[in-house]
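Researcher: Please translate sequence to structure tokens.
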Amino acid sequence: MATDAPPRWDRRMQQRLARGEAAALGELYDRFASLVHNLAHRVLEDDDAADRVTREVFGYAWENPDAYDPRQGSLRSWIATLAHRQAVHRLREAEARAAADPAGAGTAGDGAAGAAGARAGRTPEDIEERIREASVAARADYIVTSMPAPLRAALELAYFDRRDYRQTAAELGVTEDEARRRLRLGLQLLSTARAPLPDAGPPPGYGRAL
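Model: Translation complete:
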């Protein structure tokens, strides 16, 4: 998955979208669609619902390029925030429908509604805890894929392949001190996954929820 593009690319992409260049939307989609879909799926646990959120996020970016403020961060971070907020909105919407009509929710056409129907009967506290857990998981995914490659490689060896820092150093061809440094920095970044997220409500001014 791609990491943050140079700020110049972000600004130029915003300008192209503002001019209505369809090719710019295609380029934006090619670069970030997998990011958006993966984050949405983490929250919604449904491919169809994640597809819907992906369409909505890129539709919003196309219609509202000026909503992106380069001073607040990268375009990739903005797109990821939109994906998270919209996925949470759709999950809460589906849970509300399931609570109001438990019998009908499981057969709803919306994948998120179907998933919610399968989980009908949960309390509001259960739902919010589910949202918090999904948000942390999605944020952790985003952090890992955004890390510099050396840090990501060290974490993958340590946690997926069960290597200790000595084995990690040997496989990466670095000193043991450097392997420990990379693991420490990677863990510090991952620890921010539980930091408070921005308001999970949908961005204002977009009638279809996003």
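Researcher: Any highlights?
Model: The two ends are 24 Å apart (CA to CA).
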